[in-house]
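Researcher: Please generate the 3D structure of the following complex. Treat every line as part of one assembly.
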Amino acid sequence: MLDGLLDAKRWEITMAEMPALWEGFAFTLQVVVAGLLISLVLGTILGVFSTTRSRVLRLISRIYVEFFQNTPLPVQVFFYYMAGPRVLQMITGAESPVRLSAFAIGALGVGLYHAAYISEVIRTGIESVPRGQMEAALSQGFTRVQSYIYIILPQTFKVILPPLCNQALNLVKNTSVLALIAGGDLMYNADNFVSTYGYLQGYIMACVLYFIICFPLAILVQWLERRSKRRPRAKNIPGITPAPEPAKEA
Amino acid sequence: MEIFTPANVSFIMAGFLKTIEISILAIIFSVILGTVLALVKQYCVGKLSPFKWLVSAYIELFRCTPNLLWILFIYFTVKGSDIFISVLAFTIFTSAVMAEIIRGGLNSIPKSQFEAAKSQGFGFFASMRLIILPQTFKTIIPALFSQCTTVIKDSSYLAGINVMEFMFSAKVVMGYTSDLSQVLLLYGFVFLLYFVLNFGISLIVRAYQRRVVAA
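Model: Done. Output below.
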């Protein structure tokens, strides 16, 4: 089936059909943005829950994380798609099954799934900064807000940013799950093209388009990982650290 | 209509076994291929560096594109049995991830191990096989197992090409009923089995990590 890969005519037809792929591309991007928002908000809440003293909150966070990390995303999405409308009908008492748009299923699907992973990232970030750091900062005359801005958060971000971006990368890839439920995303439109024309070119273009979104993210992850391994240097913070000494003349 | 008839249950369980079979084969092959890729990316320098670039491109390509794309791609281009197509698609995709995990492990081995091996007269392949790789695999066991979980979970993407794995066979059975409570029961069953399998693996990894930390 790899023959016809260099067939100019096939490429011509593929290029003519590109608007459908771009449409899927735009839809995938929308799902990514919404999914990221959901997963960041929910993941942060759950991550903070898991570091509180409350046993109930910790348990809620634990159960959520274990369930979503240990069951497949496609199964979750099939569930929202097949059972969701009728379950919602039962809950809301509506007359007919509540229709869920592909966008809602996609954003909720990847959002809820990655919230579990992001919650773990946030938890490790919070736990990585020892309590003594805050006490030390306060004892040095930082206010609480200043301690967070200059001492605590920079250390937390250093730990959480690389895995967070990695999750964003995985989230983009996982939006392809929508193709399984005819979601109109990039993967689905590409698959549609391939099954209509029988040309492999559709998959190749989908590959290129996914790569366009994901490769910059992968580079970002690598850069953040390298940066987080660097030793911190003394910084000059106006009004807080003493003015730097004038460089000595050689 | 009661959906958990003996025939339906054994049909779904056959799917579950297929999921496990595909996952185990895919993991074995991707560890092997991943090791080769990792060694090439790590040690092909000088005249051999084109191989290194090739492998880097391979890894980046698969890291930046969805698993489902490669399942569909292989399904479209390769003819063969369900198992063959599934294992092939997962191997080419997962080996890229495995390569990065193994490379991380290689980087964690102290340089002195390489020097010691060399000074004792071990050649490159002998020192890899006997000294470096055994230590590497020991350090990456947690990451390796969590990737196994990912493969098991992602194998449900195969429902997209109608492979009779766990999810798809459950879906087929669901087609026989429109009773919501039956559908929910069936989903509960599917979620439960995936959960037990993956959670079991993660418990084993956690126990192993505790033992390593304690030792």
